[in-house]
Amino acid sequence: MRSPSGNVLSQLPKKLASLLGCESARLELKWMKESLRPSDHPSTLQKMVERRLQGEPLQYILGTTPFGPLSLLCRPPTLIPRPETEDWTLRLANTTSPKSSRPLSVLDLCTGSGCIPLLLCHLWPPGSTRAFGVDISKQAIKLATDNAARCNIPAHSSADILCNVFVPVLGDLRDTIFLKKLGAPFDVVTANPPYIPEQEYDQLSASVKDYEDLRALLGDLPESPIQNGLSFYHLIARFLAEKGILRNGATVALEVGDRQAEAVENILHCSAGLRHTEIWTDPWGKQRVVLARV
Ligand SMILES: C[S@@+](CC[C@H](N)C(=O)[O-])C[C@H]1O[C@@H](n2cnc3c(N)ncnc32)[C@H](O)[C@@H]1O
């Protein structure tokens, strides 16, 4: 006779396949099985599939996601790092060659899981990077701190070992005095801010809206006079325009949403006075990043 869990398990792949298609279901089931530890209860896999059938994102179920060569922890409600963010962060890492003789000061606004500064710290030479990641969410800062430990990126440099440093900081990017005190002038400022306009938020899938933080997605606060998803870019540009924030030769990289690149480029020209800008397209053909050089 088959065990009850064996019986249920034999039906679950079919249900997953009807939800995701055969190939995706096969792959997801394989990753779930690979994530099991010997100490897990026999029903763990069944529970994982049931969560997936309820619409929970796979990365939250597995607890990790790849980001370049890193494997980062994922926990709701902190935003799951996206492949497009991974793509431009790798590209940014390749365009700059920092040296330990003159370490770069990096500020990542809206850091979430810490994915952007952690990948830069991992790829750039030891001792060349001192990064700060700011987020308004306590859960995000806890996750970024756990991810830094997982990636062996310390929050403090030590006298005897040359290393890159990442400091996750709880804070609001609207508090520009606090941001400035972190480590200005900055050589690199990155941000993947919330950028979804309210009318597009309503159309997002339940697997995004039910699990990922509203604050990570919605580009405008309810009281904001503009509701086009661009409020954070205006705030960031005003901060960048302040005296002493950007060092000469600094790079700014801002991820943008669908059809926002030209508007954000314009905001950087007009409000931050950054004239030298370019737009990077992602591997899926979308304009994804506005890059500015000082
Ligand atoms: C789109 S997520 C990006 C997370 C991460 N950088 C990534 O690329 O996966 C935006 C993040 O901005 C944070 N956030 C929202 N409002 C903020 C504010 N006023 N100040 C600082 N962070 C904020 C959210 O908590 C969220 O983690």
TrEMBL record:
| Top-level taxon in the UniProt lineage | Eukaryota
The record's keywords, sorted A to Z, are: Methyltransferase, S-adenosyl-L-methionine, Transferase
Can you cite a GO biological process for this protein?
methylation
List the SUPFAM superfamilies hit by this protein, alphabetically: S-adenosyl-L-methionine-dependent methyltransferases
One Pfam family, short name please? PrmC_N
The family database entries (Gene3D superfamilies) matched by this protein are listed as:
DNA helicase RuvA subunit, C-terminal domain, Vaccinia Virus protein VP39
Q: Which GO terms describe its molecular function?
A: protein methyltransferase activity
Signal sequence span is none
Release factor glutamine methyltransferase N-terminal domain mapped to chain residues:
16-63
Where is it found, in Gene Ontology cellular component terms?
mitochondrion
Q: Is S-adenosyl-L-methionine set as a keyword in this record?
A: yes
Database matches in NCBIfam families: hemK_fam
This chain belongs to which protein, by name?
Release factor glutamine methyltransferase N-terminal domain-containing protein
